[in-house]
Amino acid sequence: MPKAEIYALGSEIVLGQTIDTNSAWISSKLNDLGIETVKHVAIADDIEIIKSVLNNSTSEIIIIGGGLGPTEDDLTREAIAEVTGKTLYKDPKLLEEIENRFRKRGFILTKNNDKQAMIPETAIAIHNPNGTAPAFSLKWQNKIIYALPGVPHEMKWLFENVVLPELMQSFSIKTKIEYETLKVLGMGESTVDDKIGDLMKINNPIVGLLAHPGQVDVRITATGEDSERKILIDKTKQEILERLNDTTIISEDLTPIQYLQNLLIKNNKEIIIFDEASNGFITSEIGGNPNLNVTGISGKSNDIEKYKTVNIDSVVVSIKSEYLDKNVNNLAKGKTYIQISDGTKEITEYQQFGVRSKIDKQRLLMLVVHLLIKFCNILN
Q: What average pLDDT does range 87-113 have in this prediction?
């Protein structure tokens, strides 16, 4: 399968004045075809830098976004022409299209707009129905270069309607890609890696990890025909579920909080939260469902004993945290205690981290979600 490199041109991107969303979008579309993107690079409007990057490219597919406008700092055409040894020429059909577009809009075509009709010899013009900057493709050595406008809606239309079909034909791509994400709570990234790390060495399906505060996503990506992809994913998913069976794993297309809310509604019990750690953050996040009765109570967590005996239809959550006045690895150093009870069953958890920053609160939230899911499973 071919590999791809994506270059976003524009000093405004390099300087942080504009966020490059195009490259991530293009990567996602290429990934759906099984084409691996190996490089994203933001490049300033400097022809020597652009030429250097192109000369050092190693992938079969090169996609360049931006630099096709009419101004002096739009240098994509010139850079590609010099690197590939081609001469720029003015395409009369492209010039006519640009003139007609300006005329329909009531604009006067200036001399520098002629530049947008310039493309390297042997390049194939890609007509842009949504803007004045025509795109083009050019085969060079064992590569194919696509020069696309940087305006997102123009680029996306051209990519989906021209570039993707061409790539599928050029590289005989018939297989598709499919993925499923398992959301793991109550287990750190290193522990997950230790338990399933050998599965990450397999080429198809590919297993990868992405860590968030209090949550690890395990992504399974398979390529092949429709029936083959499902078999590969299901087999690997079952293996992961068996290896991580001592923690919470959410395989449904829901966030952990949505999954928990559904469980709590199913169990039809009021949730009472004594939260001394997050200033109401836990209650507001878990209680964000009109069908769920969640009450946050200010007060000391030792009041939980009273509620455990009086409110027999309630699940009571007590959260208490202590922290030292410094952070370690972006987490407040300290201690956190969580107790969940309905008067008949109870689980408790102790963790060696405090709660101070947003990251701490998010980690605490995912821990409480994990424990409540575990508690609901005990009730069932």
A: 79
Alpha-carbon torsion 4, 10, 16, 21, what sign? negative
Nearest CA to 174 among 62, 358, 39, 33? 33
Within this chain, do residues 152 and 244 fall inside the same structural domain, yes or no? no
**The residue to which tokens 């953050």 are assigned:** 281
Instruction: Quick: pLDDT tens for 318-377.
Output: 888 776 655 555 545 678 889 898 878 888 888 877 777 888 889 999 999 999 999 988
Q: Where in the sequence is the domain holding 218, given as residue range(s)?
A: 176-250
Residues 240 and 285 in one domain: no
Task: Give Cβ neighbours of residue 243 (< 8 Å, ≥ 6 apart).
Answer: 195, 196
Say if residue 52 is exposed, middle or buried (CB neighbours under 10 Å; 0-12, 13-18, 19+).
Answer: middle
Which tokens hold the place of 70?
Answer: 């009419």
| Average pLDDT of span 46-68 | 94
Residue 178 has pLDDT above 70, yes or no: yes
pLDDT (0 to 100) of residue 309: 46
Q: How are beta strands 294-297 and 248-250 bridged, if at all?
A: unpaired
Cα separation, 304 vs 299, whole angstroms:
10
Say if pTM beats, i.e. exceeds, 0.70: no
Read off the tokens for 293.
Answer: 């009765």
Q: Are the C-beta atoms of residues 337 and 346 closer than 8 Å to each other?
A: no
Among candidate residues 202, 233, 250, the one where a domain is terminated: 250
